[in-house]
UniProtKB/TrEMBL annotation:
InterPro entries: Bact_2-comp_sensor_kinase (IPR050640), HAMP_dom (IPR003660), HATPase_C_sf (IPR036890), HATPase_dom (IPR003594), Sig_transdc_His_kin_internal (IPR010559). GO terms for cellular component: plasma membrane. It holds the Pfam family His_kinase. Residues 315-367 form the HAMP domain. This is Histidine kinase. It is found in: Cell membrane. It is a multi-pass membrane protein. PROSITE patterns: HAMP. Keywords: Cell membrane, Kinase, Membrane, Phosphoprotein, Transferase, Transmembrane, Transmembrane helix. The keyword tRNA processing does not apply.
Amino acid sequence: MLSMHRLSFRSKLKITFLMVSVVSILITGLFSYRTTASILEDKALKLTQDTVVKSAQIVDERLNQLMLVMMTFMISDSFQSMLKDASTGNDQAYFTHMTNMDNVFSQARIAEPLIQSIYISTPIGEFYPLPMNRNHSTVFTETQLYQQIIKEKRNIWIEGHEDPIFSGSQRVISLVLQPIAEYPVRDVYVVVNIRENGLRKVVGPTAEGGSLRFLLNAGESLVYDEANPLIQQTAATGLTSSLLESAPSGYTTFKLGGNDYLLNYAGLQINDWTVVAIQSKANVLRELRSVKWTILLITAISFIVTLIISGWFTRYLLIPLQGLLLVMKRVEINDLSARFRSRNEDELAQVGFRFNRMLDQIVLLIEEVKLAEASKRSAEIKSLSAQMDPHFLYNTLNTIYWKLNLKRVEESQEMVMSLSRLFQLGLNKGQEMTTLEKEIQHVVQYLKLQSSCYENLFKYEIRIAEPGLLQQPVPRILLQPLVENSILHGFESMESGGCILIESDVDPLSGTWSLRVSDNGCGMEEDTVKLLCSQSMDQGYAIGNLISRLSLGYGDEARLEVASKPGEGTTVSIVFPWKGENPDEF
């Protein structure tokens, strides 16, 4: 007979499943229960969904009727007459309008019983039903209703709250409207307060033992106050908003407090509210409880028998996996000498052996990374040394010396401080990245030194379009080689009149910002520009080096462009991706 340790892992699983399948016959009832429960659950969801959709249609109809009543209200002669005086600021007929509007208020409340009260805020005064007691301690412009209509600048529905406008602290739902007029009207708002209890009755029942229906807004908050803790907990889950993203209506199951519930929802057409219904899954499946307990008893017996038979097989099958787990734990504590060993030749053993080969590759990669890091350090040192151009340093020190001989001590001191500051900013505490602000400071020190060395040769100007640009990250020593090219090559044949312009601006549409260095020097031929852009680090700290550094730091997100014509100067532009806050805010 073939030795067990030579069998494939697939064969071992087959043997195990054959033995377990004998026991699994005993738990067939469990699948029958699940099938029946699934059918009952699906039917309950579909039946409740029809009810929820109808409830949403009823709510939509009532709210649409309310909107129609208010539209009729706002095109009435009394309202339009008042609106005309409000638009011109004429408050002479205020009391006349107040009396005339009272009849319109009554008609609107009779036409739609959901309406608790109506309030109109205008520049010439307030209008509301005369029988209503106005809460004069509250100013409309200081209420949340006013703040929201100002913020949204459109008709808005405001969820359940205590009425701040009228006395009695009635719970209402508010609709804040802007008036309908044929001429411009400002600062006129119509507030329609709906009875919270009235809307609750329209939505449907909220009693325990059956389906509970309620309203949620787009922010997963209850539209009206609900004392039922299950409704409050369901609203707090935030489940409905994620479901609405896929469909305007539907149903699902969810778990809350360890219990399973069925959830149905349907969105309204008139606003962003949603009718939601929940019911206990246990209540739907209560008729299957006796079957459930019988199946659970059979399942328990089957489980014990299966546990006895399959225990040995499970332990045997997990031996190589446990060995692999121990090797992985040793690797976690940086013991890369750990290796998997097994007498088996099945698939799990093959995984362990491949893991061994992976560890061997990791050891080799670590060595390669160490070598690459050493090469990187060498490149950084070479890059840093490039800023300390011996010719530039010689000219600077020589200029300082002669200025001291000519008793121009103050200028010499400034050059020494600029040179010191130049090296300090260039080193940047060993960090490759700096900010545009520090890079500008670095190049200013360089320009000051070169201005002292080449007196009257050139002038420079720096323009930063937005203050926020100064905090954008850039590679260090970015501008110096560009300015150096302008001075040494662009102004090579000039004795005076040179001009260097450094400017930066942002393009919010593309999410990029640019940095440009321009001069009015001798310019270059097209072939020379191509050669300049292809220079390597071995040929000096030039544009080719900058292109390589930009590619390493930004990939394809950054680019460098050179525009030049003989006799017309040269412009080098670098485009960076925007980092940090939205550029539109600047």
